[in-house]
Write a structure and sequence with these properties.
By secondary structure, the chain is mainly alpha-helical. It contains 23 helices and two strands. Helix 20 runs antiparallel to helix 21.
Length: about 525
């Protein structure tokens, strides 16, 4: 049992960080690129989409929901920054846990990070596809439903289209996008007539193979493969691509805030606390747990530690600066959205675009769609980047097959086989699977990683108090303890079903660990050879 918690020596980690050669990753990233990676990972679906549902939980208090989520990330981010500066290696929370809590916990967190990165990329690829189809619609280009969604989602979209026709006929007084409209339409979709089902299949227009309709989210698959190719070509090229997209989407967000501010009615924010937070702190907390997806990915900056020029200085800058920038932008967007539209009337499916369309600002709405596409593109890039670096670190330690997951291309200096596997799987999952539930799993997986990193800082301050720390998390143990409490609170708010999914996923991971990883662990081999020499 003691070997399950064997730790990777800090001296060995530091030696690996200083290694050079064609089988090591290339150190080319500076503070701007690292900050851009953080902003690229964070600003995406959350700011353009999830704010809508968050507003129906928190009302104008959505601004505080973003603060609450940001605080949880901020506490964890300060802990990540200390580790990233001390141990400038790929692997993020996996590597930090290996050095402090032992191999079994490290494996659990590495396996858990797959929920955050690979499944997160699949979720985002589907969101990218939705916005791409909307952009084509602006130019009156119709994408077939069976090629725009997986079969189940495509059929649901077709049914919703039929339901909208029914709504226009039977409930002409209800405005599209309002809560009452969505509730009534949901009731119709939940209990369709036989005629509606037939019409939905006609709208879908899917081909039949072996007696079954087929559907594939082609844009999701294609964008995942394009980004995978960019990542395989090189980290420098990937960073340049990401930085360009980040500049574009931040400009779009600033445009939204600047233009939207002209249409804000302060009365929509309420005249007292009850109107500002109609469901109290409980509603603000529930919204914070839901919109937490909007912050997922900033920790991916730490997975690039082995590719940073000066990781001891630049990684803390990149992580903390990106968090601050994104939180300020999120609060600004939440303020504009709830100021433009009474929270009860905020559109859930496309809150910002609908808020501008309602004021006949069609050009602004189209710009928001472009911004969402740019945002989701960079989010997908950073998530796939983070996943490949975690697998690279695990394979370098022998916990996964090294020949496949840790082999570095001699020219591009990237783990190319690993990259193509992860990108292809993410694209296929996003193309053929309804992934709403998988998206919810991403939140709880990330929160668990944050909790473990915060715990690890407390442990490391006790086990190695004299170890040099280029960046020190302030006020230990208060800051990491607050990180544990804040992120643990958000985990509880996600509900029991997500806990069940997390446990099932971790059980699968433990099967892999005990059947393969324990037999190939390099740290175990090193410890055993040390004992043999002493004997």
């Amino acid at each position: 049992m003691s070997k399950l918690f064997i730790r990777k020596p800090m001296d060995l980690l530091l030696a690996e960080a200083e290694a050079e050669g064609e089988q090591t990753l290339e150190r080319v990233l500076g503070p701007f690129q690292l900050t851009a990676l953080g902003v690229g990972a964070v600003i995406g679906a959350g700011i353009f989409v999830m704010a809508g549902l968050g507003a129906h939980y928190a009302g104008p208090g959505l601004m505080l929901s973003f603060v609450l989520s940001g605080l949880g990330c901020g506490f964890a981010g300060l802990c990540y920054a200390e580790f990233a500066a001390m141990i400038p290696l790929a692997g993020s929370a996996y590597t930090y846990a290996y050095a402090t809590l032992g191999e079994l916990i490290a494996w659990i967190i590495g396996w858990d990070l797959t929920l955050e990165y690979a499944m997160g990329a699949s979720t985002v690829s589907s969101g990218w596809s939705n916005n791409f189809v909307e952009l084509l619609d602006v130019f009156n280009l119709k994408f077939p439903l069976w090629l725009a969604y997986d079969h189940w989602t495509g059929l649901r979209k077709a049914m919703e289209e039929v339901a909208r026709q029914v709504m226009a006929t039977n409930f002409p007084a209800l405005a599209p996008g309002t809560q009452d409209y969505i509730k009534q339409m949901s009731d119709i979709v939940a209990a369709p007539t036989a005629e509606m089902v037939t019409r939905a299949h006609q709208v879908l227009g899917a081909p039949v193979l072996f007696g079954h309709e087929i559907g594939i989210n082609l844009p999701a698959l294609v964008i995942a493969l394009i980004i995978t190719t960019v990542l395989a070509i090189g980290i420098k090229e990937s960073a340049k691509f990401n930085s360009t997209i980040v500049v574009l989407k931040v400009a779009v967000v600033l445009f939204v805030i600047g233009l939207g501010a002209k249409y804000v009615h302060p009365g929509n924010w309420g005249a007292n606390w009850h109107e500002f937070a109609p469901f109290g702190m409980s509603g603000i907390g529930a919204a914070a747990a839901y919109i937490f997806f909007a912050y997922i990915g900033f920790d991916a900056v730490s997975t690039t530690a082995q590719e940073a020029k000066n990781p001891q200085r630049d990684l803390p800058i990149g992580m903390i600066a990106s968090l601050v920038i994104c939180t300020v932008l999120y609060i600004g967007v939440a303020a504009v959205l709830t100021g433009m539209v009474p929270w009860q009337s905020v559109n859930i499916e496309a809150p910002l675009a609908r808020a501008f369309l309602d004021r006949e600002l069609i050009g602004a709405s189209n710009i928001i769609i472009v911004g969402a596409l740019a945002g989701l593109t960079s989010v997908m890039l950073v998530m796939l980047l983070g996943q490949t670096r975690v697998l690279y670190a695990m394979a370098s330690d022998g916990l996964l097959p090294k020949k496949f997951f840790a082999e570095v291309h001699p020219r591009f200096r990237t783990p190319f086989r690993n990259t193509f596997l992860v990108g292809t799987l993410a694209g296929v999952v996003g193309a053929v699977t309804p992934i709403d539930d998988i998206g919810k799993m991403v939140n709880i997986g990330t929160l668990l990683a944050f909790v473990i990193v915060c715990m690890s800082i407390i442990v490391l301050r006790r086990t190695e108090p004299d170890r040099p720390r280029p960046f020190r998390t302030p006020w230990v143990p208060f800051i990491p303890a607050m990180g544990i409490l804040a992120n643990g609170y958000l985990m509880v708010k996600l509900g029991w079903l997500n806990w069940v999914r997390l446990i099932v996923w971790l059980v699968i991971g433990l099967v892999v660990y005990f059947t393969y990883s324990v037999k190939h662990s390099k740290v175990r081999e090193r410890a055993a050879s040390s004992v043999d020499v002493k004997g």
